[in-house]
Amino acid sequence: MGQVVLVTGVAGDLGRRFAAQLSKSPVVDRVIGIDTVPPRGDLGRADFVRADIRNPVIAKVIVRERVDTVVHTSVAATPAASGGRTSMKELNVIGTMQLLAACQQAPDVRKLVLKSSAAVYGASNRDPAMFTEGMNAKRLATSGFAKDITEVESYTRGFGRRRPDVAVTTLRIANVIGPRITSAMTGYFRLPVIPTVLGFNPRLQFLHEQDALDVLEHATVTDVTGTFNVAGDGILTLAQAVRRLGRPSLPLPGFAVPTFGSAIRQTRRADFSPEQVAFLTFGRGLDTTRMRSMLGFEPSFTTAEAFADFASSVTPGIFGPERVLATESALVGALTSGRGSRG
Fold this sequence. Notes:
Elements: E1 3-8, H1 13-22, E2 28-35, E3 47-50, H2 57-64, E4 69-72, H3 85-105, E5 111-117, H4 144-162, E6 167-173, E7 175-177, H5 184-189, E8 194-197, E9 203-204, E10 206-208, H6 209-221, E11 226-230, E12 236-237, H7 238-245, E13 249-252, H8 257-266, H9 274-282, H10 289-295, H11 303-311, H12 321-342
Parallel strand pairs: 1-2, 1-4, 2-3, 4-5, 5-6, 6-11, 7-10, 8-13
Antiparallel strand pairs: 9-12
Helix pairs in contact: 1-6, 2-3, 3-4, 8-9, 8-12
């Protein structure tokens, strides 16, 4: 008898596509996708159940459907994705606590996969060249997604101690990129003018969207447990990435960093959190040795190849001078206003 898998967050693009892909696996009998709203695309052979992981009713769903594997993909990275920071915190932290409590009470559950993020390491000028899974952030997050994902991982480890019979796998995934994925990072690179932080050229690592789906499936259908960094081979600097897109950049001075994200949001094309701004200032490197040697996963795309595939969907020179000038003015205006309000 194959697995019965519950996937959270299927209203999101990655969660929906993962549920659809997993439903084709020969070792999976059934996939149940849950979210508070129906997905806007095809779920394949997966079934959709409308449920909120913040509500105790999720425990009834897990028991009723005899779920033996739970894949948690619904941790939101930006406030806009979840209706504001308060809702984001509730979904990420309270939702995860409720989901884990439901799993703890469900006798059939034997595997839990958490889609975590490399944001758990933060980004600062004190970082090592490459983070291994045994390292912690050099500057502890005090708010936002980085704090949420740190708490989510902590609760997941606690669940693993309480239910040692459940195989727990945590995937610390680098920024996912590709021609079909919509995220804060792809929104940033699609801006008519790409703002950068003056004097910084961060190292970036990416994971192709198909590799993200494949590593989630691999972790779901294998017995490997533990915490793993997941990223494509190699790095790109931000300057290299911008040149490959063929778009103009706008270097902004250091004082602008605190309001960098809000300036990008005012363009209405991307939603950026403080930790994503830090990433574009200092960058981050992930050691993926464990991914290969212990998880047994090899991405099909390097970082450069993943970015090239994304770049193929971005047409250089699509914006006229007026659009470029308007975007520059919006960015500079928002940053100037932010600086004045702190004076």
